[in-house]
Design brief:
22% strand, alpha+beta
Length: 571
């Protein structure tokens, strides 16, 4: 599943640029100033100051910022589906993570290769006979939720029952491949799980990447029960929740004495909800240990911070134009938005001063360095005249103010911008002017970073400057974004839905991803709901001496490849 992310979000704190790093710590890692293409060496985009846990100080504290904490902590639901929510919960609840570097039965390396996460699932075996698949999962005997509930077949059954259909009252983000699961039963014991499908499912890790506690057993609990309540008792991970303080907007975590896996190095992890401007002062004052600086305004303000490193990599992000088709209902207006946008000009504003170049991104599902990538942006002729022609062909004419309207209704809407970063606002203002030049009446709806999850999850926007995290395989994403029963815009048709259902049974990775990309191409050209402007650079300013933290590509959404090894170098 792909997490929602603000365009300047603090959740994915990665970057690649060639600016000179300042601070006594200097710069670590590659100084790449270019987005990578297919066949590139992806290790160029990794920078974590890797150290063995045995070489680190035992104990210590790390404090990290987030743009928003809560209010809904259910990452499987639309209201809880944000990158910040995932980053917050990885240390305390990896069993339930449904994206990023690990979750449930699976873990991912920086290249995107997926293997079983033996803390929860010791082995996962698949066999196909007569067009049906049997998957056998051996669950770790020690795996147990914090409340003492065994992680066993009941958790797998509950996960399947909740996620198999959007029609059962659960506000799920996507049913994924669970619609093809026929049964989930115990094998020789409750710790052996036998999954049978109606058709083969690929990749296998599209199933049980994240497990849902058996106590979350009704739409009421799933949809409403996590509002303001993290439910630490239903979690399992190397850390446990120590305190959630909604007034102070902080979450503190300590090592989990019930954890059966590797013990963490750190004695305390704290997350603080801070607007971007507040993060700057907090980092300079030593109150937080890392922050995103993926715009020139932030970089310049942090440049020269004492005892800091700059770590660089590729941001796992695609988007820029997230259109709410429930508000902007006319497909002609949505197509005109795509036609009016000068993506190169927007990227210049966004990357100004960062000395960053990247291939023009044209997919929500894969980055240009993927061997499966193709550019699916649906409009070839762009600019003000192209946008006006789209509207004119749809029956719109210019009113006295120059705004295109039809049947007395103008093409009018607002762009929601989140946070107080000046570069992000400049991007939004440039987008606004491009759309206005295309004959549309466009305003800006300015929101706090803390409102992101509430606004986007509640669909309280016309168009937002936001996008989604990007994974190494398009199979899950194509269903989340383009299946008519799954995508939040409810856009699609039976023909596309069938193509999506069919591609899930294609075993060959290249063939399956090619089929997914073709669905995206067709959906974009019909419905115009999500516009890809960029992927982009990201920068992490990190307290000198912090080890095993930084840009990690697919290995970690939260920039911590392994929370048990995060810690401080010995002095």
């Amino acid at each position: 599943m792909r997490n929602l992310n603000r365009i300047g979000g603090a959740a994915a704190i990665a970057a690649a640029l060639a600016l000179t790093a300042c601070g006594s710590g200097g710069s670590t890692g590659p100084e790449t100033a270019k987005g990578q293409e297919a066949g590139s060496d992806l290790s160029k985009l990794i920078s974590i100051n890797e150290k063995p846990a045995a070489d680190l100080e035992q104990g210590g504290k790390v404090t990290l910022p987030l743009g928003n904490i809560g209010p809904d902590f259910n990452g499987f639901s639309n209201n809880g589906n944000s990158a910040d929510n995932s980053a917050l919960q990885v240390p305390i609840n990896p069993v339930a993570m449904n994206s990023g570097g690990m979750g449930g039965c699976w873990k991912v390396d920086f290249t995107g290769k997926v293997t079983p996460n033996t803390d929860f699932c010791e082995s996962v075996d698949s066999e196909v006979k007569d067009g049906k698949q049997t998957i056998t999962i051996k669950v770790n005997d020690k795996a147990t939720y914090n409340d003492g509930t065994p992680i066993d077949v009941k958790a797998f059954q509950n996960t399947w029952n909740i996620l198999k259909s959007p029609d059962n009252g659960y506000d799920i983000v996507s049913s994924g491949a669970y619609q093809f699961v026929e049964s989930v039963e115990a094998g020789s014991s409750d710790k052996e799980v036998i999954v049978k499908t109606t058709q083969p499912v690929y990749p296998i890790d599209s199933l049980f990447f994240g497990l849902i506690h058996p106590a979350v057993n009704s739409p009421e609990v799933f949809n409403e029960g996590f509002n303001g309540n993290m439910h630490a008792e239903w979690m399992a991970g190397p850390f446990k929740l120590d305190q959630y303080d909604p007034a102070a907007k902080t979450v503190t975590m300590v090592p989990n004495d019930k954890w059966w896996g590797k013990k963490p190095v750190l004695a305390n992890v704290t997350f603080r909800q801070l607007e971007t401007s507040a993060q700057i002062a907090a980092f300079k004052n030593g109150e937080i240990d890392a922050m995103s600086a993926n715009t020139i305004a932030l970089y310049k303000q942090l440049e020269g911070t004492k005892d800091s490193d700059v770590r660089r990599g590729q941001r796992l992000f695609a988007g820029g134009m997230n259109i709410n088709a429930q508000k902007i209902t006319d497909v002609a207006v949505r197509k005109a938005i795509f036609a009016a946008v000068d993506r190169e000009a927007l990227r210049k504003v966004r990357f100004n001063g960062l000395n960053w170049e990247e291939p023009s991104s044209g997919s929500m599902m894969l980055l240009p360095f993927s061997e499966y990538y193709q550019d699916n942006y649906p409009v070839k002729e762009t600019g003000p005249d192209a946008a006006k022609k789209v509207l004119t062909d749809a029956g719109y004419t210019a009113n006295a103010s120059g705004v295109m309207e039809k049947d007395g209704k103008p093409a009018a809407f607002k762009i929601s911008n989140f946070g107080d970063d000046p570069t992000t606002l400049a991007f939004t203002q440039t987008l606004q002017k491009q759309l206005q030049a295309g004959g549309m009446d466009v305003g800006i709806d300015q929101r706090a970073s803390a409102d992101f999850g509430k606004v986007i999850g509640g669909r309280d926007f016309d168009m937002s400057v936001s996008g989604y995290t990007v994974g190494p395989d398009a199979t899950d994403a194509v269903k989340q974004y383009y299946d008519s029963k799954t995508n939040e815009n409810q856009l699609g048709d039976a023909e596309l839905d069938k193509k999506i259902a069919d591609l899930a049974s294609i075993e060959d990775n290249a063939e399956r991803n090619k089929a997914a990309m073709e669905v995206e191409k067709e959906h974009m050209a019909k419905y115009f709901s999500m516009g890809v402007v960029m992927n982009g650079p990201q920068i992490s300013f990190v307290r000198a001496g912090l080890a095993n933290y930084g840009p990690s590509l697919f290995q970690s959404l939260s920039q911590v490849p392994d929370w048990t090894t995060l810690g401080w170098e010995k002095k």
